[in-house]
Write a structure and sequence with these properties.
The protein is mainly beta and about 200 residues long. It is built from two helices and nine strands, in the order H-E-E-E-E-E-E-E-E-H-E. It has a five-stranded antiparallel β-sheet with strand order 3-5-1-9-8. About 25% of the residues are buried.
Length: about 200
């Protein structure tokens, strides 16, 4: 008879793989090259087993054949373990680029939950840019081309922390992800999908 370790009984594992494919802007991106940073945000019971919690893409420019698309093809791969699904993994993306004064500025933020186990999805995630609340700051923003930035973009993973947040949406990130879980049936978790 095979012995089951205590660790495999008390945790389930979630493996996420995919890539940040590109950024799409209906009228083209403002300014020159862009790069994107991602952060994996999880609840208190989740632990990173392998992979990276955050990463950054290379600097990329719009394609010469399609001025609206900036291709990154940045791989996303990590494995987590947890005792419960509370705080399901989310990924927060922060996009940066140079403006017409060649000053690095925020080009938008996006947030997405990792798909449920056993699914493979290609997602188009809306990008949003924070906006100033007063006319003077908005005028300075227009003159300098420097957008307001969040001190900690990770707050986007918690909806209660950005009430009254002024922003506008422009563009979207194209992300593909698939997830595989292990140990869910032993812990009586059913995502309504096929697993294990």
């Amino acid at each position: 008879m095979k012995e089951i370790s205590e660790d495999s009984e008390s945790y389930f594992h979630l493996a996420v793989s995919g890539q940040l494919e590109s950024a799409y802007f209906p009228m083209g991106p403002d300014g020159g090259s862009l790069f994107c940073r991602y952060d994996v945000i999880v609840g208190p019971d989740w632990e990173l087993v392998s992979g990276m919690r955050s990463g950054i893409t290379q600097s990329a420019k719009a394609d010469t054949t399609d001025y609206r698309t900036v291709v990154f093809n940045m791989p996303l791969e990590f494995t987590l373990k947890s005792t419960n699904p509370y705080g399901w993994p989310q990924i927060v993306f922060s996009l940066y680029g140079n403006n017409f004064w060649n000053v690095e500025t925020n080009r938008g933020y996006a947030r997405v939950h990792c798909p449920l186990s056993g699914t493979s999805r290609s997602m188009r995630i809306p990008l949003f840019i924070p906006k100033f609340n007063n006319v003077w700051s908005a005028a300075m923003n227009w003159l300098t081309g420097v957008n307001p930035e969040l001190r900690d973009p990770k707050i986007l993973a918690d909806g209660s922390k950005y009430n009254g947040f002024a922003c506008e949406s422009y563009g979207e990130l194209v992300v593909s992800m698939q997830t595989i879980s292990r140990g869910c049936s032993k812990m009586a978790f059913d995502w309504g999908q096929s697993y294990d």
